[in-house]
Write a structure and sequence with these properties.
Elements lengths: L1 H15 L36 E4 L2 E4 L12 H54 L6 H48 L7 H55 L35 E4 L8 H14 L5 E8 L4 H24 L7 E8 L6 E6 L1
Parallel strand pairs: 4-5
Antiparallel strand pairs: 1-2, 3-6, 4-6
Length: 374
Amino acid sequence: MAFNKSHSVAVLAALLLGGCNFTDQALFPALAPTPDSSSSPAGTVAAPAPSAPVANAAGSYNLPPVSPGEQTGTFVGQKVSTLRSDLLHLQSTLSDQGIQLQQIRNQTVQDSQAYHGTVAAIESRLQVGTTLGNPILVSQWNEAVSSLDRINEDVLKANRLSTEVASTSGMAAYLLESVRAARNLSGAVDEDHRQLRVLEDETNGTIVLIERLLTDLATDVQRQQQYVATERSNLNTLAVAIKNGQLYGSSLANTATYASPTSAPQTAAPSLAAADHPLVVIRFDRPHVAYEDALYTAVKGALDRRPTAVFDVVAVTPSASTPGAAALGETTARRNAEAVVRSLSQMGLPSDRIRLSALSSPDASRGEVRVFVR
């Protein structure tokens, strides 16, 4: 009998400690069934082994140990043994999910390092100067896009894990109700009710850690989704920089805020009153006008001063003597203004912050585009 008792304790301790060496394995081993009352002798089992740690943002936290109990030989006592086994299995699942979260975080760190390393190489080359549309930088830009896609896949994995943990939370709630319901069963002795109270406390402690894991996952997913969206906008701006062979800053979307774009007055086409001073004037008096650098700098400065600013892009044509010349000038000016709008969008400025219009002015010698800040 002494040998059987020691053997049962060793098996239980091995099962509870099974998650401690998971970092050296690809998957967490499934928890085997816990010995029940039919395979254990009567009497009190030795002190419980500690449960496996679950990884979280602060490092790790321990699941509450599941206390052994004296076998009473009653029907309720058998129910307590079954519920205790269910709690052990639940904790094993939770430990596995906590380690999965840590693995996802580690993979995200690696993918982020690869992404930022590639972007830094592109920006360093642009900073010292390079050719327009350098194919080496284009290849590196495509590599950065792939790295960002891998980060997005990490976010999707965290989302799927969050769904699994939510299912574990439902199982824990059901287990807690089962423990409470067992106290109403007839045929129990005082020891059965004592063990049920202990088991209820341990189940409640496990539920607290499940909720913490859910909170960690929700925080991670929200933060990484925002990160991916921001970096996609930055990559669009970087693509414009590669095309022009000049280094810009971060995406304009990082500066623009959405505090009150809807409150901005939706005015008609702007007039060229004396009080209206354009932020930028782009004169298309020759082919291939390089305006993106000056445009980015001006718009970025305006957003730094007023993050909720709205920009009017106005195609301005000179007054013409004939209708045909006027129509041709308007078409050309509007095409140029649309190109400016596309440039702003590629730089990350949200489309609801840009308003396009056209007008004629006697002080415009040739077709030009004026950008006003509102």
